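Deviation from plan, reported transparently: magnesium ion complex.
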Amino acid sequence: MSKASSRLEFLGQLAGGLAHEIKNPLSTIKLTLQLLDEDMQKEDSPTAQRARRKIEVLLREVKHLDDIVQEFLHFARGHDLKLARTDLYRLIVELFEFLGDEARRRNIRIHFDADGKLDDLVLDPTLIRQALMNLLKNAFDALDEKGGGEVVVRARVKGDLLGLEVLDTGCGIAESNMDRMFRPYFTTKKNGTGMGLAMVRRIVEEHGGQITFESEAGKGTRFIILLPADPEKRGSLKSMVAVDEAPGEQP
Ligand SMILES: Nc1ncnc2c1ncn2[C@@H]1O[C@H](COP(=O)(O)OP(=O)(O)OP(=O)(O)O)[C@@H](O)[C@H]1O
Ligand SMILES: [Mg+2]
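Because the crystal trials were delayed, the predicted structure below was used instead.
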């Protein structure tokens, strides 16, 4: 192992330990605030009401910190892939069912475009679901400022490749942000942790795949994931893309 990578690994462990140490006092703070809130519920004075509003703010901030630490720990540890034969078609249909109400509420039309044999793929279904969920959440957020729009998930198996795309007709990505999209903690959202895309990339790479995107500010964004359909062939994605037409490409 090179000096630089062992140093990086050491820093990773140190940061993981630090994050872990932060979690305990944080949960004590949360619990104490909740108890304080209960006490304040018994009082009806204006002072008590003001105190409760302040407690609410503190609890919100504690939750935000807790989310950050949680995401960090997930990210720092990485995943052990639990590969299983998966019906990806069904997984996506169920994801759509889960998000249906939310989409309607936000005036978003969602559409699933499937092609090829998707019902028997070897992957980690929980992680792939999480990756798609993160991309869909981002797509929904991107549509909010337009008051709604369209989101399409495309899944396609062609030859040795599985292509997954998430398209939206949302706000798009400013040219100046394009380089840092996958960077941990990069966010333009008030309540974002900026770990969504970093996590998606990690999951895709753990599956031996790669992720890219195309975007036009004001018009929309397309995330493109390419995975080897056969896990035996993972690790040789580059040569496969070179010989085969990528499933993400339009005819
Ligand atoms: N589909 C998209 N359209 C436009 N911008 C996007 C899209 N997806 C991601 N982004 C931009 O990339 C940033 C990083 O995304 P990422 O998912 O990593 O974090 P986040 O969404 O800000 O926070 P979190 O995922 O923790 O809620 C976003 O803040 C947003 O600016
Ligand atoms: Mg996100």
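The first strand starts at residue 84 and ends at 86. We consider this an acceptable substitute for the interim report.
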